[in-house]
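CO-FOLDING WORKSHEET

Operator: S.A.
Ligand of interest: zinc ion
Run index: 220
Mode: holo prediction, single chain
Checklist:
[x] sequence pasted
[x] SMILES validated
[ ] output reviewed
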Amino acid sequence: MNNWFTIDKIDNSTYIISEYRHWEETHCYLLIGSEYSLLIDTGLGICNIDDIVKELTDKPIIAVATHIHWDHIGGHKYFPNFYAHEKELNWLSGEFPLTMDQIRDMVIDRCDLPEGYDVNKYDFFQGKPTKILKNNDVINIGNRCIQIMHTPGHSPGHMCFWEEKNGYLFTGDLVYKDTLFAYYPSTDPELYLKSLERISTLPVNRGMLTVNGVFHPHSA
Ligand SMILES: [Zn+2]
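OUTPUT RECEIVED:
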């Protein structure tokens, strides 16, 4: 548990919480505002990310995922106040297009699981968001405004998060290192390209990926 998460500081009120023991190397981002803290993606949900978040902020947490894939919503169970995009609400209520067995296989694939962890207890998070997001909505956490950019392609309700003040762009699975592999039937390459074109016009100082890994077709 103690070495499951790695914390990196971007600035005094922005942190990266990473899970390097899974091959995808997922990164979650904590943005601390004067009223709330926003957690962008909550990771695999294998260890309790809330323990880490509490060490970094005492503000109430709003959780949001760039999209509804297991490696981005695993920790949502710790954050009852979470937002989701209107196009992926059905994936939070029983209509995700993969079985639990398929998901568990990908969770354990090249993952250095904590000792004694029982993957059969791994669940795909389901729930009802406290707020439904759409393109260009703004989340104001106090002194920081984060704009939603609906960027479908990797998934129908994929969002990037744009903080103009700092020039930070949180890109989720729209952009990551290496080959972009479109592995779901719900993936749309044309929309993917349009989304990339859209974000490429932003004056970004720093782009933040949420996974580093390359997805291999054998496990799709
Ligand atoms: Zn994804």
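REVIEW:
Residues 214-220 have pLDDT under 50 and may be disordered.
Residues 67, 69, 154, 173 surround zinc ion (CB under 6 Å).
[x] output reviewed
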